[in-house]
Structures are given as C-alpha cells and as structure tokens.
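Subject: for your reference before the review

Hello V.,

The reviewers asked for a structural picture of the protein, and I figured it would be easier to keep everything in one thread rather than splitting it across files. Below is the amino acid sequence we used in the manuscript, unchanged from the supplementary table.
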Amino acid sequence: MSAEPNLSIVCACIPTIKLSFRRSAPNSNLPQEETSVNQPYFQQKAELASEDRAVEMPPETRAHGAPIATINAAKTHPEVIVVAIAARDPVRAHAYAKKHNIPNVHTSYQALLDDPTIDAIYNPLPNGLHYEWTIKALQAGKHVLLEKPSVSNASEARSLFRTPLLLDNGGSLVVLDAVHIRFHPAWQKFLTLIDPTNIAEATSSIWMPPIFAQDDIRFQYNLAGGCLMDLGSYAIQTLRQVFGCEPTECLSANARLMPQGYDQDIDQAFTASWKFPNGGIGTIHADSSYDGRYLPWLTRYIPPVRSPKVEVKHREVIVPNSDMPGMETATTKTVIFWDVLAQSLWHRIDIIESHELRSSPAGEVKKRWTDTRYLKQYSDDKVCADDSWTTYRHMLEQFVNKIRGRQTGVWVDSEDSIRQMEMIDGAYRKAGMKVRPSIAPEELY
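And here is what came back from the structure prediction:
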C-alpha cells in the first residue's frame, strides 16, 4: 500500500494563499472566468517541504496575521507543503518566491486554480472577494480553507455552502470556514464548563487598538468591511458556541461609525444583544479602534491593550443542604475565558462559584463565600500533546483530516457558516445599517 501523498500550501503574494493536497480532484465543466485583483500583498513565510504534489489554496491579504499564521502552521504539518504563489505583479511575485524558496509562480489567481498539481487553497482575500474566488476554486476542483467571515452576507453564504459543487460528487470537495479560535483545546475545555440551558447572560468583548489605517480594506463597505465582519464575527461565534444554539431575536444593535471623511457605511465599533431560546441574553462588544487608556497624559505613546474576554454567568442553582435540615445552598457559577484570540500564546479560564447558605423557606442568608479556580489547557492528548500548536495548527489538522476522509474532531459545517452570516446580517439591520453588499466582479477591477 502506498503512503498517502503530502498536502501543500501555496502562498500568493497578493490577496490569496493556496494549499495543495496530492489527490485527484473532480474536474468541473462549468465555465471559468479569468480575472485579476489589484490588492496589497503580504509577505508570508513559506518553504517547500516536499517534492510531492499538493493541494493549493489562494490566500488573500485581507488580514495582517492570518496568512502568515496559516503558513507557519503548515510548516509543522507532515502532510502539508508550500509549493506556489500567485500574483498580478510578476516582478514582485518572483522576488517573493525566490526569497522564500517557493518553486512555482502564477501570474493570476485563475492560473493558479488551473494548475493541476494543486488541490487546495487558503483564501484570505478581502471579504468582498471570498465568494467569487471560492466558487472559482470549487469549479477548478480545489478544496478551500476560507478565512472568516466566510462571505459578504447570508445570501452569499446560502449560495456558496449549498452549491451543487459541494453537494455533488459525493461531497468530495471541502470548504472550511476558518474560525481558528474554535479548534484550540482551551476553547473546547471552556465549553465543557458551560451549562447552555442554564445561562443567564453571556458577554463577549473583543478590542483592538487603532493600528489599522482608516482606509484599510477592513473599513471599506464595497469590500464588505466593518468591525462586525472582523472582530465582531469572532464575538458572535463565541456566543453561538456557549449557548449551543441560535438566538430567537436581536434585541438591540448599535454601531460607532468611522470618523467623518471616511466610509460612513462602515462600523468602527459594534455592540449588540440577542435573546436565546433558554431566555438568556448574549451581548457582544467589538471595537477595532479601541483607545481607552488609563492616565492618558502618561500613556499616550503606548498602544492601549485590553484582553478579549468571554464571560458566561449561569442562573442560580438551589440545593437543599443535607447536613443542615432547614437550610439550602444557592450557587451562582461564572466562567470567564481570557484572551480567546491568542489562546495558544496565553489564556486563562476562571471558574467562579458564589455560594449562599440560606434558611428555607424564609431565605435568610446565614453565610456567603466564593470558590475560584483557574485553568489552562494548551494541548489535548486526543489530538496532540504538543503545547506549541497554535489555533491555526489545530484547525489545519482537522482540515487535512476532512480532505483525507478521516474523522474530524472540531468542525464548522456548512449550515453553521450560513447561520453565522444570518446573525451578522440581522445585527446590521437592527442597527439601521446596510447589509454588506455582493459585488459583481466587474465592479472591482
């Protein structure tokens, strides 16, 4: 029996990176339209790890960290190699490829997709380009690791994740919504400490200092930008995960728009609340230009830092005290996850249980006390005991497993991705803002 072929990641100097997996992929007779995109590029570290054919994934440069993080993760995966790049500027592309020992350079994204040696791509392009280039990748028979948010709106999500290109051919093609934070053992441990049916309220807060230019691609409506589409999408993911279901209603939504002179259809910060089936309330606070400082006169030259936090408060649970007749113990449990975005570098899970000893049925409090525990979990023996694995590395492991036909642990299925975009669209509408647009390719070039 021959050994399974290696998987490869192909990096693009411009908005896309590509993964390659050595396996025959179904061909499509659907017409393919060759286009090019003039977007800024990111220099990502990549190296050739094998001579085997690999699956390509076109990476976009929409995110400052995601392409590099994915490529670095690939370098530690025995079944993944980096084999090619694609770029509109051939001079830049060849210089990049030479610097990083990448053997193949394609002069357009479509040329990369047409390369028969590539089986998968990583698509981190600006949000507005996700749908177009993911569909084209599927038409070319490529698997896709698709940077979040998966697409621009729920309509595109339904079209993409229910396309016959995925449903036909026995579901042989794989598209994964790259919500990397869901794949780390720390987050999975956190979820085991939650009782979804008994949540009273959950709050997910994610802040970023003002490190991006006001005209960054994150802040362009025509590219489906906005805080809710970036940091806010993480916050929404965490709420959906802790409640284990979809909300029944968006109660409120408020946006802080970009400063005057910039795109007024773009939210720089976003706050929203939802009601869930158990009656619990979930709230997000997302700010892509957080500038809250202590002693601003002293710290004005230091970037403001505030750790992302997911806090879940459960309803009170009352239990009769078997050792003290006529008494009962009331317990309220709060679980906090600190630093969900960079959990592979550092995180902490706080489990806080507040107790009251009361007389029954009068309810007179006789004693109060609090028990607090702190947990960390950087690895999982079921998947990998290596503490150095990042969230991207854990995600890549499951992506490869899915392509190989092996059992996956954590996964984001198609309907999950659709519901995520439906929740984002609903929040924009509640805030009185326009849903992010679907853009015809000719509008972009």
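For the response letter, the relevant points are probably these. The longest strand covers residues 327-338. The chain is about 25% helix and 25% strand.

Happy to draft the paragraph if you're swamped.

O.
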